[in-house]
Fold:
Amino acid sequence: MNDGSPIADVVARMRERLDELPPELAQRRFFLGTYLRTTQAVGQAIDRARFEDPEWVERWDVTFAELYLQAHDGELIARPWRLAFDAPETLPPLGHVLLGINAHVNYDLPQALLAVISDDDFEDRHLMDRRRRDHERIDGVLAERVGAEDDELAASSARSLVDRVLTPLNRLASQRFLRESRQKVWHNTEELQRARLDGTYDKRLAELEVLSAAKVADLLRPGQVLLRLAVTGFGVTLPPP
Structure:
């Protein structure tokens, strides 16, 4: 990741917030640390020419990160983020990470995509095919981070024997539900684009907020959450208007 790049700048801002977290917000470090390292990985993937349109991916990734920073800083806190931020401190680190992913991927990501894809872009089928392929290439970056992030979480908390035995399955489950949720994000982005054109965007975004907030109950249910999500799915789907 090039120093001075927009992604390097946003990573520095994340690190500043991580370093300055007050004790009463200490539980936010689990998602923030994970997101910081993932953003670094995306920057490195851009430098390695893993995307068809690296400039667009960089612009999109920074726009995406800004939505998280706004929520973290209290500028604009939608219900999925409020639920994530208000989760009990006693929740395992994985729980805090999943709540953050829910708010940021299921709710924020379609908005970030719309912010960097214009109405005219949606009319260009070849361009949209490129956008979708780059969107899907992020899966490869995330999949490569699953093992390392699992190790980070393991180092921050005690794990039961069952958790340790299930680690390989949990990592496969994580890769599967991240891919599944990203596919649903693309569907939701297209639904929001139609709403942007017909003047119902605010209504449809409110529906997405409700769906993302409702997902929290599933994430907080007791049991092997990663394996359950691999079966039931992590993403949310906007129904037809």
